[in-house]
Specification:
The chain has four helices and five strands; from the N terminus they run E-H-E-E-H-E-E-H-H. The chain is an alpha+beta fold and about 130 residues long.
Length: about 130
């Protein structure tokens, strides 16, 4: 199972209806492509994990990279796992007040990002437990 985790900034802050529309389209595309994952949104910024067959995940990431509603798309981790982390979520979603209040705050430091390839998955799981998603 291949996964990629990336950060991006919206070109504008998303309203709740815009986020709901984005989520609906993402969930539909992910179900079609057998991709699962998680999308977190805070202060105009996103962090997303996509997982599935490598080709499908990379194609989805490429589409997202071309989306003009995003800028500064930065992959922070990718790799292979032996199972899905979010098997039941075509697109789990959570709006949070600030990434500064989560385990993701360290990803703002590029040196920290590359310490461990498994660290992002650990952080996502930690966040999910803390946020009770």
């Amino acid at each position: 199972m291949y996964y990629i985790i990336y950060l991006s900034a919206g070109t504008n802050w998303f309203s709740q209806p815009e986020l709901e529309e984005l989520l609906a389209i993402s969930a539909k595309n992910n179900m079609r492509d057998n991709i699962t994952g998680l999308l977190l949104y805070a202060e105009g910024n996103f962090i997303q994990l996509l997982e599935g067959e490598e080709k499908a995940v990379k194609e989805s990431y490429d589409r997202i990279s071309q989306d003009e509603r995003h800028k500064g798309i930065t992959p922070i981790a990718s790799g292979v796992t032996d199972h899905r982390i979010f098997p039941d979520w075509a697109m789990g979603f959570k709006t949070i007040g600030s990434f500064r209040d989560t385990p993701f705050k360290d990803f703002l430091n590029p040196e920290y990002r590359h310490k461990s390839n498994l660290l992002p998955v650990t952080l996502l799981n930690s966040f999910i437990k803390t946020a009770k998603i």
